[in-house]
Amino acid sequence: MYKRILIPTDGSDLSDSSVQAGIEFAKQLNADVVGVFVAANFQYPIYVDLIPPNTPTEPEYQNAMRVLGETYLHTIQDAASRNGVEFQSVVQFNDSPAKEIVHTAHVFGCDLIFMGSHGRSGLGQFLLGSVTTKVLSNCQIPVLVHRVKHETTKTAKAA
Hints:
Elements: E1 4-8, H1 13-29, E2 32-39, H2 58-83, E3 87-93, H3 97-107, E4 112-117, H4 122-128, H5 131-138, E5 143-147, H6 154-158
Parallel strand pairs: 1-2, 1-4, 2-3, 4-5
């Protein structure tokens, strides 16, 4: 059915939960996985009078983001390795994570994107935006949205 699945990560708990589910899904299908972390492009502070001396250069920023992205992608790599799933990863730079996720899926020949969603709706989604919603809007391949089940607290159970 699906042979190569793209799993984006931002390092959040939601993303880690979706990664685990995505790897298990890929294992069931005997599919390969491509992990992607999208960092924002470097922005030089051009509208300030005095640039702080500790402001990173573009290469320093990109190196720091690559290290951070590789740290997050290591979670996917570990899960893939434990489950015997072929894995490759990439750190990309783009101010639109959704567009870069779709582009990366195309470049790597993925036939499915597996990603998490906070499940916000209405005003919350409007105000915060949603990378998942934007991917769904811009993508020509299937997108499987993993919704994390929120555990009910003990106090909520007792009430």
